[in-house]
Design goal:
Low-confidence stretches: 195-203
Largest sheet: 7 strands, mixed
Structural class: alpha/beta
Shape: globular
Mean pLDDT: 93
Number of helices: 16
Number of strands: 12
Distance between the termini: 48 Å
Order of helices and strands: HEHEHHEHEEHHHHHHHEEHHEEHEEEH
Helix content: 40-55%
């Protein structure tokens, strides 16, 4: 049975309650989870898919409710100011997100959430990583993603999608896939008088349902615009993204209170400015804000993406440690990698140069002999594709047991979606 149509806030509250009940009573439950970097795209597309799928589940759904998991502890929400900027437009708050803290502790998660009582839908990644992956990887039942296919999701996913296609934002794929069920759910809510049934004070059902649609549409639109630079990044933007933006904007324009004042360019600038406002964060928090990790051939690879240049990070490190900037920066990177027991760590930065042109930097650090071989192979094999050029002031290391190098990445169209697979391919 489908979940009754309601607001995003009410849905998330209901989903959290259902999760608690499933833990207490061993009920079946379906999770929708984004990747562990938990960027705006992962957060929004997990909520979008779970919300819309719960309103119109497949006939033989494993469970009627889909619970969206934002793949971070709740304390890490503060590291993502772009979340807060978007929430102002969607009638939800940070406390409404369902995070890793809502799951049982890893020490007893299997006894409280038995794998056979769960199914997992992956969005914005296609391989469940970390401890959750070790326990629940065999319970993955569907995927919508725009990264390279790691071949971990079964080819036959039954009633759930298996969509892995290139586009700027995974949210675009989710929005496009869910269009028919979304339109059907909205039409059904209008015809059934859902708003009055919930005792809302708005003047009519149509206005209420249209506001629900506009709230979730703005959540989805924000991540697509951020990932495609308001559809202006030719290297990322695809027809999937353009179609999704057109559809989501139409949902917003159908809500009269918003239609008169909504401006896409202003909306994008607001969210983009919030995402780049990381000056108040500690360096270690900046490194883990958009961080992803893989286990590859028994070795650990970590990649941090940062929306400021290395020079900014060096100054922050120096200020925090009251030490020479470049030395403090490298010490901070070393501590970050060692804490996570990484064999290889990469830092990717994005920024605008003095001429206003978009630019990327790439730092790679290998911490043992096996990782050194992989790092050198990556540097050789990827130099031309990524346009790697020596970075000024680079403090390189080249020994048998440790290797570090920093480059300008001149082929700026390649984000972590491409660099991470190249790194993994080089690892034995």
């Amino acid at each position: 049975m489908a979940v009754p149509r309601n607001s995003l806030r009410a849905f998330l509250t209901h989903a959290r309650g259902a999760l608690r009940s499933a833990i207490e009573t061993s009920q079946k439950i379906t999770f929708v989870i984004g990747n562990e970097s938990a960027d705006l795209d992962s957060m929004s597309c997990s909520i979008l898919y779970a919300y819309l799928r719960s309103m119109s589940p497949p006939k033989n759904a494993f469970s009627p409710l889909y619970v969206p998991i934002t793949n971070i502890p709740s304390s890490d929400i503060q590291l993502r100011p772009e979340y807060l900027a978007v929430f102002k437009h969607t009638n939800i708050e940070s406390k409404h997100l369902i995070t890793l803290d809502d799951l049982p502790a890893l020490s007893d998660i299997q006894s409280k959430l038995a794998p056979e009582n769960t199914k997992w839908i992956l969005v914005d990644h296609n391989a469940l990583q970390g401890q959750l992956g070790k326990i629940y990887a065999e319970r993955v039942a569907g995927v919508i993603d725009h990264h390279d296919d790691e071949k971990k999701v079964p080819e036959d996913t039954g009633d759930e999608p298996r969509i892995i296609e290139r586009c700027g934002s995974c949210t675009s794929l989710v929005a496009n896939y869910c269009q028919p069920s979304w339109d059907m759910a909205s039409a059904s809510a209008l015809s059934s008088g859902a708003a009055h049934a919930q005792g809302d004070s708005m003047s009519n059902d149509a206005a209420f349902v249209k506001r629900w649609d506009a709230d979730i549409a703005q959540l989805g639109l924000a991540s697509i615009l951020i990932d495609t630079a308001d559809l202006n990044d030719e290297n990322k933007t695809t027809e999937h993204d353009r179609n999704a933006v057109e559809y989501l904007e139409a949902k917003i324009m159908l809500c009269p209170p918003l239609a008169a004042s909504f401006n896409r360019a202003s909306f994008y600038k607001e969210i983009d400015a919030a995402k780049k406002d990381i000056g108040s964060l500690k360096l270690q928090d900046i490194l883990r804000k958009d961080y992803k990790q893989w286990d590859q051939g028994g070795r650990k690879l970590g990649v941090s993406s940062v929306v400021k240049p290395i020079e900014f990070l060096q100054k922050k490190a120096g200020d925090e440690a009251s030490a020479q900037a470049s030395d403090a920066f490298l010490q901070a990177l070393n501590e970050f990698a060692r804490e996570r027991e990484l064999d290889m760590f990469s830092l990717m930065t994005t920024s605008s140069g003095a001429d206003g042109q978009f630019q990327r930097e790439l730092l790679l650090w290998a911490f043992n002999d096996g990782a050194v071989s992989a790092a050198k192979m990556f540097a050789t094999n990827s130099k031309d594709e990524l346009g790697l050029e020596d970075w000024q002031g680079s403090d390189d290391i080249d020994s048998k047991s440790e290797w570090r190098k920093t480059w300008w990445q001149r082929q700026v169209q390649h984000s972590r979606k491409r660099v991470a697979p190249l790194l993994r391919e080089a690892m034995p």
